[in-house]
Write a structure and sequence with these properties.
- With about 450 residues, the chain is an alpha/beta fold.
- It folds into 2 domains: about 1-10 and about 25-45 and about 55-85 and about 355-460, Aspartate Aminotransferase, domain 1 (Alpha-Beta Complex); about 100-340, 3-Layer(aba) Sandwich (Aspartate Aminotransferase, domain 2), CATH 3.40.640.10.
- Helices cover about 40% and strands about 10% of the residues.
- The chain contains 15 helices and 11 strands.
- It has helices at about 5-10, 10-30, 55-65, 90-100, 110-125, 140-160, 165, 185-190, 215-220, 245-250, 290-295, 310-315, 345-380, 405-415, 445-460, and strands at about 135-140, 175-180, 200, 230-235, 255-260, 285-290, 305, 385, 395-400, 425, 430-435.
- The longest helix has about 35 residues, at about 345-380.
- Keywords: Aminotransferase, Decarboxylase, Lyase, Pyridoxal phosphate, Transferase.
């Protein structure tokens, strides 16, 4: 063994203590650090070290060279995209995921996949899904949507008497995928799956909404020859709008379609009694996407996908090799996702669910919703801003009241980046900004700091 590597092994407890200290320092400074550090000149890449110098040296180099450039995305005022943090229990689980280093895909070494199945069962219960849905962990919402639509592709083949998994997507002929306000990952998934971005048909939404118009959807289905795929939204990115899942389900009485629901963060509405009606009917979906590194507050990368047709899922993703078990009635996880290598992502989710339960995660969801409403109210009361949509759940979509050009909004975002991070969008043809609340640390004090920073910056650029 390399002498330095052997020395690190002998000192492993000490090195883990040093790493723990660095992690504790980073987390303790979240409130004071710039949320997004000012952009500086990129580092010139250093050459690969020729000789071993050990973990101590690597840790010191990281803290000096890279840590100051990292954002405080684990903190309470990182309101860009839809980004959670990592609860204390989730952080512990993620550390132990690396410690135990499981490839949890095979019954030949089955502890990891059994833990994943237990965790999936807890999540299924959390979101109000029945046992008709089976689930697996994947890397994020994009992979969850891709997996769900891959199963939908095989369902289309089943209806047409072919198997895209065996014969290719071309065997299907033209395919129509209907949606009102699909997330960008849907078109990406269709490209990956060989169905093509042009197979996505955007159906009119309700006036002033991002929710699909059920009557328009029925007309689109009536004009679709053969079976189709419908992608419903349970929480759109810009305004957290929800399609009427019950109304869409009712269309199945007259039309043949696979229903995939993108509930990346909207599924968490099920935890809050005031908002649970928004996901009424979610269980009727044939496949469901939920992103866990958003509102479950587990570290990147983690998501789950659910489906009612595990048989079709295994047909798509089965991996035939002598060293793997047969499919059987309960396929190993290696047969259910694109990944042969599959870290034990479920452990971080298991830890946070085991530690805080339904009530603890309900409190996070309800507090973030309250914070979003408070920021929305503060911006609505400030003449410098215009709310572009009601605050339905955890996202505030707003713009400048005067001259809301992309350039002025970029100036606004950059002016406040040290205090609060928000991301750009376009809503209804208007350049806008989104603030998304999904971090377990965020409080009303953070809302006040964000509102004050935004207000001061708007007056500066006026």
């Amino acid at each position: 063994m390399d002498r330095t590597l052997a020395a690190d092994l002998a000192r492993l407890p000490e090195l883990l203590d040093a790493t723990r200290g660095a992690a504790a320092d980073a987390l303790a400074s979240l409130d004071a650090r710039p949320v997004v550090p000012a952009a500086g000149k990129p580092h010139d890449p250093e050459p690969l070290p020729e000789h071993a110098t050990g973990t101590d040296t690597a840790l010191a180099a990281f803290r000096d060279r890279w840590e100051p450039r990292l954002s405080a995305s684990a903190g309470p005022r990182y309101l860009g995209f839809v980004t959670g943090g990592a609860t204390p229990a989730a952080l512990a689980g993620d550390w132990l995921t690396a410690v135990h280093d499981q490839n949890s895909n095979s019954a030949l070494d089955g502890g990891g996949q059994d833990l994943e199945r237990e965790t999936v069962g807890w999540l299924r219960d959390l979101f109000g899904l029945t046992a008709a849905h089976s689930g697996t962990f994947v890397s994020g919402a994009t992979m969850s949507n891709t997996t769900g639509l891959a199963i939908a592709r095989e369902w289309l083949g089943e209806r047409l008497g072919v198997s895209p998994a065996e014969d290719g997507a071309a065997a299907l002929g033209p395919v129509r995928v209907l949606s009102g306000a699909p997330h960008s990952s849907i078109a990406k998934a269709l490209s990956v799956l060989g169905l093509g971005r042009n197979s996505l048909v955007r159906v009119p939404t309700l006036p002033g909404r991002e929710a699909v118009d059920p009557a328009a959807l029925e007309r689109a289905l009536a004009g679709t020859p053969g079976p189709a795929v419908v992608v419903a939204n349970a929480g759109t990115v810009n305004t957290v709008d929800f399609d009427d899942l019950r109304a869409i389900e009712a269309l199945r009485e007259r039309h043949d379609f696979w229903l995939h629901t993108d509930a990346a963060f909207g599924a968490f509405a099920a935890l809050a009694p005031e908002h649970a009606h928004l996901v009424d009917g979610l269980d009727a979906s044939d496949s469901v996407c939920v992103d866990l590194h958003k509102w479950l507050n587990v570290p990147y990368d983690s998501a789950v996908q659910f489906t009612r047709r595990r048989d079709l899922q295994a047909r798509v993703f089965q991996n035939s090799a002598a060293y793997l078990g047969p499919l059987g009635a309960h396929p190993d996880l290696v047969h259910l996702t694109p990944e042969n290598s599959h870290r034990l992502r479920a452990l971080a989710a298991w830890f946070t669910l085991r530690a805080y339960g339904r009530q603890g995660h309900r409190e996070i969801v309800e507090r973030d919703i309250t914070c979003a409403r408070a920021l929305g109210a503060a911006l609505e009361a400030d003449p410098a801003f215009t709310l572009l949509a009601p605050v339905r759940l955890n996202v505030v979509c707003f713009t400048l009241a005067e001259a809301p050009t992309p350039e002025r909004l970029t100036a606004l975002r950059e002016a406040v980046a040290a205090e609060v991070f928000v991301t750009p969008t376009v809503y209804g043809g208007t350049a806008a900004v989104r603030a998304a609340f999904s971090n377990w640390r965020t409080t009303q004090a953070d809302v006040r700091r964000a509102a004050e920073a935004l207000g001061a910056a708007a007056r500066e650029i006026a």
